[in-house]
């Protein structure tokens, strides 16, 4: 019985630590995005390039984030940074979903920078021609 209780306590502690790490990651992403949106609003391209290393090749959703409804869908730690899965909706259009890879950066005011991004492709239904 003592062994089961010990295992339960360890699992509960691990779950609590994971929740705290996820909350910290979400807060970090939100703070970074607040800096990013402020830099967009002031047209500070030098600052934008510190907050997003690929700013010049970014899609519209990342270059005009202040014009979009932005939702943070998922955050996960990866080797040296974080991946943030985000939804960007412009007006009433279908949202675009991107994964942003964010790493530490000493020259960024948020101490983080976007180093890569890629769109999330939705799975499309395929038509099975054997039914025709």
Automatic annotation (TrEMBL):
The keyword Signal applies. Residues 1-17 form the signal peptide. It comes from the Eukaryota. Keywords: Signal. The keyword Signal applies. This is DUF3887 domain-containing protein.
């Amino acid at each position: 019985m003592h062994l089961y209780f010990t295992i339960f306590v360890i699992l509960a502690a691990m779950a609590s630590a994971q929740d705290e790490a996820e909350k910290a990651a979400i807060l970090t992403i939100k703070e970074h995005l607040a800096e990013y949106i402020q830099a967009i609003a002031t047209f500070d391209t030098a600052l934008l390039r510190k907050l997003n290393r690929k700013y010049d090749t970014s899609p519209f959703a990342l270059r005009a984030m202040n014009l979009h409804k932005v939702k943070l869908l998922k955050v996960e730690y990866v080797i040296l940074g974080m991946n943030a899965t985000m939804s960007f909706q412009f007006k009433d259009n279908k949202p675009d979903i991107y994964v942003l890879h964010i790493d530490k950066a000493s020259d960024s005011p948020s101490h983080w920078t976007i180093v890569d991004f890629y769109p999330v492709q939705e799975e499309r239904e395929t038509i099975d021609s054997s039914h025709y």
